[in-house]
């Protein structure tokens, strides 16, 4: 029997519409986390903090993400294995990428790297506006070939595939849970169930259940076999620490009994970007539309799942390049160009970033996002000191702590400007916005110092935190789980989510997380089905009588 506990609610319908992707940020389905202030990043943001959106809903962050399906470089996974994680090299994980995949554009992708018939549909959007072709042509002029970035080569450009099905977002909930929900008698799902700690026997260090808050009451669920922690890269370390598994100094300072001293929360990595390089589109390619047109598009989408709302505008072109800091045959910068409103952004870049309510289909500017694929800086997630259980964890992202990260970002910004010289962009009048942003107006626009300032003031993220429950060999001081995803020193407890990634892949993190989940579920099955004890899989948990004397 499997009990799935989710702190959030069911998926809202609005999440289905690709062009509405940014609308759910800062809503009730976002945990609403923010980074701690830092001298090197997010300096112009409100209170010096960057928002780190995380999905609090069935499907987790896959219900709020931008749906991009890019897996990273094969060498990324070879590196995971080389760090002492047997079973995780590219040739080991590729079958798990393929297993979940139902690729609906086999003609566009490189066949041996893809699968059909899996639960997770992957496809290109059915709609492309004229900026999409403009960008693809511009990149081609710069010598970047268009091909499948999920194959054995990564430096190039692509009309990206997405985790959508027939014009609608397909979250991991929609792909993997919905088809079996209410059909399998051995699966029970409880939403709005906020897990507060994992129950671990202090004498034996065996995990035997969880304590969770639901409808104002604290309840326990007991596992006869295993507890699987999949709360994501911020909340999985939080829950381990609340349960006595984590850095002893921190736990002791909060009065938490230490059951296992591990570097939980450390090794935090993310893909940093910026909001500060804006391309202004002319009337020839701007897609801004009247209210009446937007209503017509909405009606059309409702009836057909087609049209401008079935895509994310220019964001569906992604490109991977190398800067002089790349040092290997892998890319170190990814470019996305986000739809933007020029007047809103120039009037108030901070407020605009906080209140993105315009569907991605309608825009007159492109926010150029160089994304740092191979960050050297490492951060840490710690428990909230005043309210460890219900307070937001403290996220010290340490973005740009390593200077090479800042240098790479500046290089990535400068390389992105080459697009402006292509005939594809020049022929339709695309221009760089040259109004200096307030936080950097004291520096000459376009100088290296200006771009470095933009990076540190207007820092952004593409919301890919990973690594805080690092997978590694026993002799790795930062390792939290072994290559079977079992927490060191605690029996019957696995972590299966993005937090186990030892190094962030040079791509997007949703597909790798799904791969980890596929592989992790095989590990669980291998352990328990081997016993031949199929009956004990049923009735694996019991729920105690709820009691209500807790806050
Ligand atoms: C705005 C945004 C855009 C992104 N864009 C992309 C993209 O285009 N492509 C891409 O590949 N990746 C993207 N990502 C990243 C990708 O979605 C994540 O890497 C992936 O979803 C991580 O999966 P996870 O299972 O580790 O965590 P999550 O998906 O965050 O899932 C964790 C789940 O655990 C639940 N939970 C947490 N704490 C508790 C608790 N105490 N009790 C009960 N339940 C709890 C949460 O509510 C959530 O449902 C984006 C993410 C965001 C937020």
UniProtKB/TrEMBL annotation:
Chain residues that bind FAD: 57, 195
One Pfam family named in its UniProt record: GMC_oxred_C
Domain of life of the source: Eukaryota
InterPro entries reported for this sequence: FAD/NAD-bd_sf (IPR036188), GMC_OxRdtase (IPR012132), GMC_OxRdtase_N (IPR000172), GMC_OxRtase_C (IPR007867)
Cofactor(s) for this UniProt protein: FAD
Glucose-methanol-choline oxidoreductase N-terminal domain ranges (all copies): 232-246
GO molecular function list: flavin adenine dinucleotide binding; oxidoreductase activity, acting on CH-OH group of donors
Keywords, ordered alphabetically: FAD, Flavoprotein
Coiled coil: none
Family: Belongs to the GMC oxidoreductase family.
Listed name of the protein: GMC oxidoreductase
Taxonomic source organism: Popillia japonica (Japanese beetle)
């Amino acid at each position: 029997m499997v009990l799935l506990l989710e702190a959030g609610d069911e998926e809202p319908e609005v999440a289905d519409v690709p062009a509405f992707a940014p609308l759910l940020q800062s809503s009730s389905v976002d945990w609403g986390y923010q980074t701690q202030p830092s001298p090197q990043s997010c300096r112009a943001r409100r209170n010096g903090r960057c928002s780190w959106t995380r999905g609090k809903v069935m499907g987790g962050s896959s219900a709020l993400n931008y749906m991009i399906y890019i897996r990273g470089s094969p060498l990324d996974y070879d590196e995971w294995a080389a760090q002492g994680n047997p079973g995780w090299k590219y040739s080991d994980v590729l079958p798990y990428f393929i297993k979940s995949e139902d690729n609906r554009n086999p003609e566009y992708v490189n066949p041996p790297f893809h699968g059909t018939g899996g639960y997770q549909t992957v496809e290109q959007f059915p709609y492309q506006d004229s900026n999409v072709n403009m960008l693809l042509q511009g990149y081609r002029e710069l010598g970047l070939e268009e091909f499948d970035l999920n194959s054995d080569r990564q430096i190039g450009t692509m009309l990206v595939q997405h985790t959508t099905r027939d014009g609608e977002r397909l979250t991991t909930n929609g792909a993997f849970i919905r088809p079996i929900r209410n059909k399998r008698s051995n699966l029970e799902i409880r939403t709005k169930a906020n897990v507060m700690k994992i129950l671990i026997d202090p004498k034996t260090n065996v995990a035997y259940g969880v304590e969770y808050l639901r409808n104002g009451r604290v309840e326990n669920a007991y596992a006869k076999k295993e507890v699987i922690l999949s709360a994501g890269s911020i909340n999985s370390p939080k829950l381990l620490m609340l349960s006595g598994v984590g850095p002893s100094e921190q736990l002791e300072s909060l009065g938490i009994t230490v059951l296992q001293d591990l570097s939980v929360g450390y090794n935090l990595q993310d893909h940093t970007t910026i909001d500060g390089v804006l391309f202004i589109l002319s009337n020839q390619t701007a897609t801004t539309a009247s209210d009446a047109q937007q209503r017509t598009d909405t009606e059309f989408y409702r009836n057909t799942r087609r049209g401008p709302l079935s895509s994310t505008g220019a964001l569906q072109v992604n490109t991977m390049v190398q800067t002089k800091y790349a040092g290997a045959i892998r890319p170190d910068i990814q470019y996305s160009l986000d739809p933007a409103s020029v007047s809103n952004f120039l009037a108030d870049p901070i407020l605009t970033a906080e209140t993105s309510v315009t569907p991605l289909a309608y825009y007159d500017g492109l926010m150029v996002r160089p994304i740092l694929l191979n960050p050297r800086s490492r951060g840490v997630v710690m428990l909230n000191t005043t309210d460890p259980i219900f307070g937001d964890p403290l996220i010290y992202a340490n973005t740009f702590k390593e200077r090479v990260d800042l240098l790479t970002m500046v290089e990535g910004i400068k390389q992105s400007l080459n697009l402006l010289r292509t005939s594809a962009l020049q022929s339709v009048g695309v221009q760089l916005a040259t109004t200096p942003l307030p936080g950097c107006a004291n520096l000459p626009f376009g100088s290296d110092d200006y771009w470095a300032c933009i990076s540190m003031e207007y820092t952004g993220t593409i919301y890919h935190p990973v690594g805080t429950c690092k997978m590694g060999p026993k002799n790795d001081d930062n390792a939290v789980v072994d290559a079977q995803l079992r927490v060191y020193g605690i029996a019957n407890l696995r972590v299966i989510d993005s937090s186990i990634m030892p190094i962030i892949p040079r791509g997007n993190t949703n597909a790798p997380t799904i791969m980890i989940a596929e592989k992790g579920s095989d590990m669980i099955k291998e352990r328990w089905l081997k016993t031949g004890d199929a009956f004990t899989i049923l009735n694996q948990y019991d729920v105690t009588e709820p009691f209500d004397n807790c806050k």
